[in-house]
Amino acid sequence: MNSSAQAQDKYTQARQGMIQEIEADARSTSFYINKKELDPKVMDAMGKVPRHEFVPGQVRHLAYENRPLPIGHGQTISQPYIVALMTDLLEPKRQHKVLEVGTGSGYQAAILAELVAEVFTIEIIEPLGNEAKERLKQLNYKNVHVRIGDGYYGWEEQGPFDGIVVTAAASHIPPPLIQQLKPGGRMVIPVGSRFMVQQLVVVEKDAKGKLTTRQILPVRFVPLTGAH
Ligand code: SAM
Predict the structure, then answer these.
(1) pLDDT at 103 over 60
(2) Which residue of 54, 109, 178, 194 has the lowest C-beta tally within 10 Å?
């Protein structure tokens, strides 16, 4: 085996270990999520996307630990279990067009790109957004579109969306995002302040436009920033 094949093999094994930890977390949170395992399609995507490509060199050896990691600018790549859970809660379908608020490293966008037709993702910190854009291009994710801006306002020209995932905690559900959700669509968003317990919330819009919200479990995210 040459050294690059050895490195690949090392990461494949480590990624398998991460999958087992996600499975264990799903079982131990089954009380909250109402099931013992996540959607197999989502787990396949988690087993495929090379998380080590999305983290800085200094923490690459930790890429497959089931924990958030720093990605610079005071931001983090989310814990793998939380990425898997949020993706599962979104109930992605092959034909879907999805919006992500908070591109960060681009990892969540890559997971979504494995499962849906088009991913639109917005990042407020310009260098992070640009790095993620370049990384996703290098990894050949042609169905991800990255934009720099305040995701609180969504991406009106590309809406409405079948699904919206927000990966930073908001004090309230942004009305522009509700507006850009299709009837029958769902949004997954952490709600709460930096100093209080945040809740992961699923918002569903029915065919008539009526909203229902469901709290899933307590989480801890960096705050949604911006001028709103
Ligand atoms: N989804 C990311 C990933 O897979 O690496 C992790 C996201 S990190 C937990 C949250 C991200 O949201 C940060 O990169 C932060 O800069 C970004 N963010 C915060 N407020 C934002 C806003 N108003 N609009 C867009 N992005 C925002």
Answers:
(1) yes
(2) 194
pLDDT in tens, 153-189: 999 999 999 999 999 999 999 999 999 999 999 999 9
Catalytic residue among 78, 105, 171, 193, which? 78
Q: Give the 3-state secondary structure of the chain.
A: CCHHHHHHHHHHHHHHHHHHHHHHHHHHCHHHHCCCCCCHHHHHHHHHCCHHHHCCHHHHHHCCCCCCEEEECCEEECCHHHHHHHHHHHCCCCCCEEEEECCCCCHHHHHHHCCCCEEEEEECCHHHHHHHHHHHHHCCCCCEEEEECCHHHCCHHHCCEEEEEECCEECCCCHHHHHCEEEEEEEEEEECCCCCCEEEEEEEECCCCCEEEEEEEEECCCECCCCC
The pLDDT tens digits of the residues spanning 15-52 come to 999 999 999 999 999 999 999 999 999 999 999 999 99
Residue 30 lies in domain: 3-219
The answer to whether residue 226 sits within a structural domain is no
Residue 70, domain member (yes or no): yes
Residue 228 inside a domain? The answer is: no
Supply the residue whose CA is at minimum distance from atom 2 of ligand 1. 104
Flag whether 27 is in a domain.
Answer: yes
User: Which residue CA neighbors atom 12 of ligand 1 most closely?
Assistant: 102
Q: Structural domain tally of the chain?
A: 1
Q: What is the CATH number of the domain that holds 214?
A: 3.40.50.150
Q: Determine whether 30 is an active site residue.
A: no
pLDDT at 2: 61
